[in-house]
Amino acid sequence: RPRSHTVTTTSSSFTANLSASSSTLSYDREFLRTLPGLLMVTEIVLGLLVWTLIAGTEYFLYPAFGWVMFVAVFYWVLTIFFLIIYMTMTYTRIPQVPWTTVGLVFNGSAFILYLIAAIVDASSVNKELDSHNYNSWAASSFFAFVVTSCYAGNMYFSFISWRSRTLQ
Asked: Where is the MARVEL domain (predicted)?
């Protein structure tokens, strides 16, 4: 004799909201026109210059340049990640994350570590050390300081945003 099967399905409001909000992908074209957006693009372009100028040399023979490479590539990748998050407005879909604090910590750590890397880069450039790579290392040092100033600018804007959120 056939048995009767009853299947009951339920859906939570969380999954309904998640499927409704993930079906449309927002794109913020205006973000690149803001000063923080322009600074992020500058950080990406000049950060790429920093690590490609070093990567084209025999940097692996000198540990100081390995540190500069690590910082430059690490923050280059993370900056691209954050640019995508801001351009796609993903931060609006994940309200559980304190984005103003995350931005402040990211830009603050990038500023500090890039400043250390730029100083290490500049102090390691020595014509007698390797005259063949001297120009690339000197240029990477210059651009590392420029990228450092960009992260300092974004840290300032992140601090203003974080402070206005904590005062509310």
From this structure: 31-163
Domain-embedded: residue 5: no
Closest C-alpha to 133, from 61, 68, 72, 49: 61
- Radius of gyration of the chain from its Cα atoms, rounded to whole angstroms: 23
- Give the C-alpha separation, 151 to 143, whole Å: 12
What CA–CA distance (Å, rounded) separates 87 from 144?
Answer: 25
**What domain range includes position 33?**
27-96
Judge whether 82 lies within some domain.
yes
> In this predicted model, what pLDDT tens digit does every residue of 109-140 receive, in sequence order?
999 999 999 999 999 888 777 677 888 999 99
Tell me the C-alpha distance between 39 and 151, whole Å.
Answer: 8
Question: How many residues make up the chain in this entry?
Answer: 168
**Contact (Cβ atoms closer than 8 angstroms) between residue 136 and residue 56:** yes
Question: What's the structural domain count of the chain?
Answer: 1
pTM over 0.85: no
